[in-house]
Design goal:
By secondary structure, the chain is an alpha/beta fold. The termini are close together. It is 45% helix and 14% strand. The chain has 2 domains: 182 residues, Rossmann fold (3-Layer(aba) Sandwich); 182 residues, Glycogen Phosphorylase B (Rossmann fold), CATH 3.40.50. The protein has 16 helices and 13 strands. The radius of gyration is 22 Å and the shape is elongated.
Length: 376
Amino acid sequence: MPQHEHKILISGGGTGGHIFPAIAIADAIKKKLPGVDILFVGAKGRMEMEKVPLAGYPIQGLWISGFQRRLTLRNLLFPLKLIFSLIKAGRIINKFKPDVVVGVGGYASGPIGQMAARKGIPLVLQEQNSFPGITNKLLAKKALKICVAYEGMERYFPKEKLYLAGNPVRQNVIEIAGKREQACQYFELEKGKPIVLIVGGSQGARSINESVSKNLELLVMNNLQLLWQTGKLYTEKAGKDILEKLSGNNKNRVRVKEFINKMDLAYAAADIVVSRAGAIAISELCTVGKPSVLIPLPSAAEDHQTKNALALVEQDAAIHLKDSEASEKLAEHVSDLAKNQARREQLSKNIKKMSIPDSADKIADEVIALISNNGS
């Protein structure tokens, strides 16, 4: 069968945590099957409708959203949206005729996965978190393969379908070897003094930002320097706080960035990282092997960020700090780590052990194997 006739449909999205792996999987499949035709299906009005075309792939949108547990107009519309989405998902599948469907979690994954299974099309799921999302749990019975990023997932999924593949990470972000000097120049930091990287996900994180503001004086003690990604809404406030709370040379110890485009340089510069515990952030931290203080986003679906953080804590691979305790304990955790090189090295060694390289390639291989097995 000529290569260009292979067709793969990838569904899901909602957050960067679902979209980036999906694009990485698509890129890996394309490299291995140059003539492949890949179509994405997302949820209308969500981030994927913008990010996927930027990555060079076509996308179609379903009218679907999450179900909240209270009586709202959105909930009353939910059954209607679901029916419409199932019908549209069926139409997309009939027209595109994919060989394999890949679901990465998120709203759009549900209807597409359901219809694919109904039509006998092989379904592969990718679960980024240590606690699965509701969509993947519902589709697990219908999937032929479930690619996971953490061990022990047989608690939630049929063991015989599991494949430990890790989370695809963006290659350009994790290549940090030998870049520290360049990174310090780029961010105008001193290379002889420890650097703490503070990131709150692509949108910034209000409670982390407020904790940093509150503890600025303590955080720059012991010669520490801060590289602080605030997100758009907090940049101005952060600048003001630095001017008001820090004196003299201490003002120069903090670099505020609305958004860091060159994350490879940020990781290369960092001695300690303070971060949310989203699946992709954690996979990147495992790959770059940085001692980390993880502050999970408490409102994340099914509190999966806390579960991700605890999966690392169990292996003594990171420090977990509750969001509600961040403002009183952040400075203490950071300065303890800064003073204790042996502890930093231990955390670094343990978190690196949890890294699974070449995830996108591994998942792509599983998807491609299903094309061949499907007799096409």
